[in-house]
Amino acid sequence: MNRLIIFLLCLGFAGSLSAQKEDPVLFTVAGMPVKVSEFEYIYAKTNGKEATFSKESLQEYLDLYVKFKLKVKRALDLKLDTVPQLIEELKGYRKQLADSYLINKEVTEKLVREVYQRAQQDVDISHILFALPANASPTDTLAAFRKAVEAKRTLDAGEESFGNLAARISDDKSAPRNNGRIGYLNVLFPNGFYDLETAAYTMPLKKISNPIRTPAGYHLVMVNNRRPARGEIEVAHILLRKEGKDPAQVEAAIRNLYEQLNGGARFEDLCRTASEDIKTSGNGGYLGFVGINQVEQAFEEAAFAIPTDGAYAAPVETSIGWHIIKRVSLRGMQSYDLVRPQLEMKVKRDARFELARTAMIATIKNANGFKETRKPLLQFAETANDTFFTFRWKASETDAREVLFTLGEQKVLLGDFFSYLTENARERMRLRDSNPKEAVLSLYDLFVDTRCMQFEERQLESKYPDFKALMREYEEGILLFEATRIEVWDKAAQDTTGIQEYFATIPGKYVWNDRAEVTKYMISPPDMIHVEPARAFAAQNDKEATLEKFNNAGKRVVNAESFMIEREKSPESTELRQWKAGEVSPPNVDRERDFFYFLKVEKVIPSTPKALSEARGYVVADYQDFLEQKWVASLQEMYEVKVNRNVLDKLVRN
Hints:
Chitinase A, domain 3, disordered N terminus, extended, 4-stranded antiparallel β-sheet, 654 residues, alpha+beta, 17% strand
């Protein structure tokens, strides 16, 4: 873990700041201002649910944050912000952040919130499909589109109802049965159906959409209704199958079971003895969670109509038989923060993600006056040959100064594109099955997208206060870390005399608990019959005698090792009960390394103070804290801190 991440985790200062119209200065450190918005956000972020905004809590955190800013001020006075290595380190962090920040802000976050908002409703839609194969020719595509346009004209003119027309001309095989009515759906629609989903959630009811293209072809869509989302219901059932039986007898049998339930019989008992769902009958009929359109409509309607957990519905018939459905629980819409990670994974796998990214790049172009000069590109593309797909390819230098496009005040040259192609040789080779000209044009589109993203990333601080604040925190974190290293940590590690003097001021702070020198005897499973005899013998004899007795005739049965353990701190100490010389522990098993073992106490050493050499790690850490306290005290004398008490008082909420 790198040093900046460690620092941010310890202090909890990573985050973003909310913009405020009125943002007064809360305090200054030697004239360096800290505004109330910065402090308020960091206080809330760091304290989480404990952020009570009480006067005592705010004052306590203000003291901590003032110390933080004192150290930052010292780092600036040491001119650490001019150290090339630290400047490069900050640039590296910025690049890592910027690469993902823009996409997350402009694409991912918007799409996830859109999905969550849509998920609050179920949509009941009908459609007419004009099917197209994945490899449809332009001629076939145009023909399907014209059919869709003509069908919409027919519907708009009122010449035929949607249901009748769907049953007559739709390529959806279920249309003759359901008149094109799909029923209620919820997000996400299948991959590639984002435009259809958008229509379903945004169109007025009973209106006919324009033709919508999906991987299946063209669709005309009508929204019949919208309702609050049902969510998911956890259910169990008792099933009696119909196939090969007298329908009347099956219905009579299920109703008899229902009467038994109403008479006090246990659902689980009847399920075990009567249900014909062999997969679930032994488990109380448990089916798990089901959502809309995952089971037959009759089953779904009956299940969601059950009013309370533990209750069950009257018998309901489906295509396979009769069911008595029991509601286990109902899971409605969960909070955004809870479902966001799952929604984000789904969104990033969906085609809508690339559509949104493409739309974002188009917005960047429009907002920054993107102008293209394709002549130099096309001239270069015409000269490309099969060498373009190899590492041997080299760009011509004669026309490298030609302008390909402008974006804002930036001119992007053909030479810039050549550099991109050189750096992305694998992308060139990946397209080796393409025509060279087509490959050049395809890579050019990727190049333009890349440069647009880079252009926008350079504007992040000016466009997004959150990003600007985050970068400030990274910069201050790097500076503070370096200043603390110079002023405290390095001194503590190298100051041998200072450590010795400090250690002399705290006698008795570092103490050994009672310790014991123990011997651990180990026996592998094939020789486990020797565990008790070896344990009894070792209790009366030393290690050498025990090993000599049980390891003879060239066979090693017992292994042993001696070491020191500390009472209540060493894991092995829990196996000893008397903590006295000669004690032998009960036999135990080391399952990880697969052997039996027992311990014998050879000697007990009472509690004693640790020598400096024995406690050096703890002493150095405490000495660092000691030096840091002295450092902060010196900074408080060096820099004047002014706190605006009126501003602080306005933050108090209780």
